[in-house]
């Protein structure tokens, strides 16, 4: 029996590109100002690089300093990362249909958020998206330590321990085949992939059920199917 439905945050409930754009804009302001560059040119370059490489690539700013022939990267990088994590201007919006999904599931299941990232950054996003009220618990890897970042299974195990449930009682919904799926596979937690955001073109096992944004309500059917299968197994 499913007791908990857990969600990833970035790209699963909203498009993370919204945060990137806003944070990169602030970073471009800082770099352009400090090095007397054209802000738009610098922004365009880093944003284009993000589109090519994605959020998990961590050399974009270093490469930008090389490309624009700027000095003092090692001095500036802490400030850049600080600006990135402390951006509070991003206009974040949930994907259409997410509120209804959370509202409906909230009636029947405990909802949990399991997300990677800096604590304050993730908390800002959660508050900006006004979704805190739907979740019984929120697990942010940055709060626990580096070893808790996905694809580690640690946050999932902690969640199951905290709620005294087994993997068969839990579903995880996430977007990232490389970070969200592996811990679920390892722990035998049912995984539903939301095909959205920057990782939507990455292949995943054929056995994984996928939902795309245009057909979000299909998640209700998938969860219903998982519940039915579970009850068949338990009754036999
Ligand atoms: Mg994600």
Descriptive report:
The structure is a single chain. Helix 1 (17-35) packs across helix 2 (39-53) and helix 1 (17-35) runs antiparallel to helix 4 (73-85). This protein has helices at residues 17-35, 39-53, 60-67, 73-85, 98-108, 119-128, 141-144, 154-162, 181-187, 218-235; strands at residues 4-7, 110-115, 137-140, 170-174, 190-195, 209-212. By secondary structure, it is α/β, with parallel strands linked by helices. The mean pLDDT is 96. The protein is built from 10 helices and 6 strands; from the N terminus they run βαααααβαβααβαββα. Strand 4, helix 9 and strand 5 (190-195) form a beta-alpha-beta unit. The chain has a 6-stranded parallel sheet with strand order 3-2-1-4-5-6, with helices on both faces. The chain is elongated. The chain has 2 domains: 4-15 and 92-235, Rossmann fold (3-Layer(aba) Sandwich), CATH 3.40.50.1000; 17-85. The protein binds magnesium ion. Magnesium ion is lined by residues 8, 10-12, 174-176.
In short:
The chain has about 240 residues and is α/β, with parallel strands linked by helices. The chain has ten helices and six strands, in the order βαααααβαβααβαββα.
């Amino acid at each position: 029996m499913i007791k908990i439905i857990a969600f990833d945050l970035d790209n699963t409930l909203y498009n993370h590109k919204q945060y990137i754009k806003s944070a990169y804009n602030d970073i471009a302001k800082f770099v352009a100002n400090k090095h007397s560059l054209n802000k738009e040119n610098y922004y365009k370059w880093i944003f284009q690089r993000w589109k090519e490489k994605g959020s998990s690539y961590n050399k974009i700013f270093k490469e930008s300093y090389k490309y624009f022939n700027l000095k003092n990267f090692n001095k500036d990088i802490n400030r850049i990362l600080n600006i990135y994590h402390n951006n509070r201007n991003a206009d974040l919006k949930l994907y259409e249909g997410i509120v209804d999904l959370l509202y409906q599931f909230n009636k029947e299941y405990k909802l949990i958020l399991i997300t990677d990232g800096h604590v304050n950054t993730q908390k800002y996003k959660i508050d900006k998206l006004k979704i805190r009220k739907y979740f019984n618990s929120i697990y942010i890897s940055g709060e626990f330590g580096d070893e808790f970042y996905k694809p580690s299974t640690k946050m999932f195990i902690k969640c199951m321990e905290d709620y005294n449930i087994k993997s068969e009682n839990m579903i995880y919904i996430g977007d990232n085949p490389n970070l969200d799926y592996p811990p679920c596979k390892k722990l035998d937690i049912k995984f539903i992939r939301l095909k959205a955001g920057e990782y939507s073109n990455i292949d995943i096992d054929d056995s994984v059920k996928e939902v795309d944004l245009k057909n979000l309500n299909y998640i209700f059917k998938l969860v219903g199917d998982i519940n039915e299968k579970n009850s068949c197994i338990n009754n036999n």
